[in-house]
Amino acid sequence: MIVIYTRKQTVRKTIGAFLLGIILIEPDFAQAYIDPSAGGLLVQILLGGVAGIGVLVKLYWGKLTKYFCKERDDDT
Amino acid sequence: MTPEFSPDFVRVAGSYRDPEGFVFYQDNRVFRALTKDGLASYHDFRQSPLCEWLEEEKWVTRTWETDDAASVGAIAAKYPEITGIIEQSRIPFISYPYEWSFDMLKDAALHTLDLLLCSGKYEFILKDATAYNIQFLGCRPIFIDILSIAKYVPGTPWAGYTQFCQQFLFPLALTAHRSVHFQHFLRSYLEGIPLHVMKPLLGGSGWRKAGMFKHVILQSFFQSGFQADNPALKSNFQSLKFSLDHVNALVCAMKKIVTQLHQGSSQRHWVGYSDNRSYTALEVEAKRRFVEKHLENVRPNSVWDLGCNTGEFSLIARKYTPLVVAADADPESVNHLYRYCRQNGISEILPMVLDVTNPSPGLGWNNLARQGFLDRGKPTMVLMLALLHHLCVTHNVPFEYIFNLLLIVEAEYVIVEFVPKSDPMVKKLLTNREDVYPWYNLLVFETEAFKHFSLVDRHELPTGKRVLYCLQRHGH
């Protein structure tokens, strides 16, 4: 099925793709309320070997799909 | 009848975080009041061979259950959650991480890591990794928070990892890699240097140093992407099933990084001071003899050597007293003294990084959680050698204020050296500043001194410039 985007949607998708690139380094603005151990837990997950890396990929994949779903919800 | 509190009961103001109990002083002794869970945890530890080994090696402070039923009753009447009390041996003088030199913090860090590795062998772990759990007995670090040693819960990670980074690794790395002394940072950040502060301080190329990419850059990156209460984080994390092997691997890796950190060299202005001073070997000898004579006469319970430099006179004082608090504002001089004491197994000297013009204040909750330096003890004798001109000329402190300080700390004896304006060191201080110190002379000094102290002995050094005084507080 061919999807035709309006100009506005195209701009939004482009911005979305750009944001996708930086999403992993975008700071969370609610940092003041973050439990300081979040980063520590993730470092330990990373150091947990192959299984740990798998879990990390899963976590970030979840983050990306969440972002896409949000984008799709906005479009509808 | 409700048992009465001892009038000497003082709950330690900083002891409020641990849900399993709190620390209190009574009759000059230290106790821990424990809840039911705390007592069970303590029994687990007490009955394990780990406890015996750690106490024998003096890695942890010695503890024992008190059989003073009246005390337990009195505490339990006021704090119903308390079911037991243990006593622990007292540390002669409390010091805090922001008063330690580089190698003191490094040794405290390694002590924490070694304790973790050792505990792991017996299926125990440290619940946290705060630097405030370490104290110094002379130049030996010792772990004081027994309740922090608990049974390892299978599947859990090292809970104190981030705390260890912030309280030990980051301050040490800051000094080692950026040549910035950590003491003032730790005084401001009581929980340790936060990630968002450490990352920019590390600088552009700092990530290339051992461990910095992983523990600063990556941790900061992860920190900004997830919140700790994120349900995905929790569920995925549980699936990993951590073990003590994982914890030990991380602790070993951390130990390797910490071991490799060394204090960068600077101009070492004060460290070379004793080699570059303005007076002759004859004067130095006369000064040593004067100080030693009065230490031997008084045999003080404790001595504060203020402006100790690399501790030349602290090393003399330790022969006549069980405790010398050797304080200087220069972290490198203090580190020099600490290393010397550690290498030679000297246990009477506690080196501290401390500026007499700005001593550590009370900090934390209500400014009481960490005691101010001046509230931590009463020295029998204070040494102020080659210090007066720095206080008066460099910092504009009047003589009156200096003697007030001695009254505040209730020093019974003072050995103080007056350095006149004609001395080359004072001339040097006055080179680029206006001489607004007409009062800086022997007459005004003696007038102020004798308002509160009486003269025990006075000695002019051979060249007749510097004058040594041994003073005794009125009424003693």
Task: Explain what this protein looks like in three dimensions.
The complex is a heterodimer of chains A (76) and B (476). Chain A has 76 residues and is mostly helical. Chain A has one domain. Chain A contains three helices and no strands. The longest helix of chain A has 26 residues, at 50-75. Chain A is elongated and about 45 Å long. The relative contact order of chain A is 0.11. Chain B has 476 residues and is an alpha/beta fold. Helices cover 41% and strands 16% of the residues of chain B. Chain B has helices at 36-46, 49-56, 69-78, 102-121, 161-178, 183-188, 195-202, 212-225, 231-240, 244-259, 273-276, 281-298, 312-317, 331-343, 388-394, 399-408, 424-430, 442-452, and strands at residues 10-11, 21-26, 29-35, 63-65, 82-88, 124-126, 134-137, 140-143, 149-151, 303-306, 324-328, 349-353, 381-384, 413-418, 453-460, 467-473. In chain B, helix 4 (102-121) packs antiparallel against helix 5 and helix 7 (195-202) packs across helix 8. Chain B is globular and about 80 Å long. The mean pLDDT of chain B is 91. The interface between A and B is medium-sized, with 31 and 37 residues.
User: Average pLDDT across residues of chain A?
Assistant: 61
Number of domains of chain A: 1
The mean pLDDT of chain B is 91
What are the segments of chain B in which pLDDT stays under 50 over at least 5 consecutive residues? none
**Strand content bin of chain B:** 15-25%
Please give the share of residues in helix of chain A. 55-70%
Summed up, the helix count of chain B is 18
Largest interface: A-B, 31 and 37 residues
- In the sheet with the most strands of chain B, the strands line up as 12-11-10-13-14-16-15
Structural class of chain B: alpha/beta
Q: Find the count of extended strands of chain A (DSSP E, 2+ residues).
A: 0
Give me a quick take on this structure:
The complex is a heterodimer of chains A (76) and B (476). Chain A is mainly alpha-helical.
